[in-house]
Amino acid sequence: MSPRRRDSAPGPTQAAALAEALRASILSGELGLDAPLREEHLAERYGASRHTVRAALQALAAERLVTIAPYRGARVANLDDDAVDALQALRGALETEAVRQVSAECGARWPEEVTRPAREAIDRLALAEASGDWLATTRTHAEVHRVIVDAAASPRITQAYRQLESEILLLLTHIRPDYPPGSLAEEHRAYLDEVQRTGGEAVRAHLAHSAALIRAARPRAGTDEP
């Protein structure tokens, strides 16, 4: 491939396809936290121009899957404890508002057609837990919360919430909190019932508990052990 072709401006489809390939590598755990993402290496690996690589990395930086810093280049993101707390707080604000809107429409006992998608997602979470597949578990876990948010039928809240999902998946791909086998599905069955009764209070308590487990599972500085 000639230098002229390699340095040409990327088309949106090329950049989006490369971003999707890199996203998959990051969220599968193939690329670890803080792994360097060198433009030249990625251009060679994927047969893309440097401009295309740069555009893909910028797209992933907008999702907070990648950090880009002067003199350090691009790296897979690695959330510290403050970032985890901030992320959970933002998730909580969005999920609380979604739950408030559903309860305003449906009352303290949501109808079966509203809760069914969440209960079906929880069933899939139970199957993923039973399989021992942590990646599948993290994704079905995220799906449970997503469908609860989706129940508000608010495109703006849904869009904002989904923009946060990649960060949570990135974190949980590499950090496995201490959830006893089978406990996640049961915890979320109780959570679905509790948000109908207490709304935002249940959301905040649930996410605070999750954040505490994540912090406890993070490796200590200078060690490989939690």
Briefly say what this structure is.
This protein is mainly alpha-helical and 226 residues long.
Please provide a written account of the structure.
- With 226 residues, the chain is mostly helical.
- The protein folds into two domains: 3-76, Arc Repressor Mutant, subunit A (Orthogonal Bundle), CATH 1.10.10.10; 81-217, GntR ligand-binding domain-like (Four Helix Bundle (Hemerythrin (Met), subunit A)), CATH 1.20.120.530.
- It is built from ten helices and three strands.
- It has helices at 3-6, 12-27, 39-46, 50-62, 81-106, 112-131, 134-150, 155-174, 183-198, 200-217, and strands at residues 36-37, 66-69, 73-76.
- Strands 1-3-2 form a three-stranded antiparallel beta sheet.
- Helix 3 crosses helix 4 (50-62), helix 5 packs across helix 7 (134-150) and helix 5 packs antiparallel against helix 8 (155-174).
- The chain is elongated.
- Keywords: DNA-binding, Transcription, Transcription regulation.
- It comes from Microbacterium schleiferi.
